[in-house]
Write a structure and sequence with these properties.
45% helix; 2 strands; mainly alpha; 5 helices
Length: 152
Amino acid sequence: MAQAGISPYLYAPWAKELEPLRDGEVFARLNHPTWRTIYPPGAQAFFQAVYRLKPDSVLAMKAALGVAELLGLAAVIGLLRASGRPVSQVVIYAWNPLVLLEVWGMGHLEGLLVLPWRARCWDVGLSSRSTPPRCSSCCRWRHGRRSYSWYC
């Protein structure tokens, strides 16, 4: 839709105004063709970038999300090294069934968030010279006090 100059927030895929844009591969796989997009602008930009590389390809979308996930794993490995923890602990995240199923199998967008989230934790952790890295996403409350957790 965005490639055709139509805002994805304007129409649901099922709208008659979008009939000329429908294809057999992607449209047939939509879960809720009567809903307008629920994805934020950053996700829309990602969709458009993948579309420009390989139009109407579910496989290309999954591959791009897989690459983003691998970059996120690299950030997790960097965090482990920076904090002096064994790099082998990356399997706690990498072998998580939800990661394997949702990102690699279903092509969900969670894989896009790992890299910026962990990069921010790394940046904050290195700038404060604390171990483990501190960031708001790694913070939780315990016994009325703030405590930090590596696995957040």
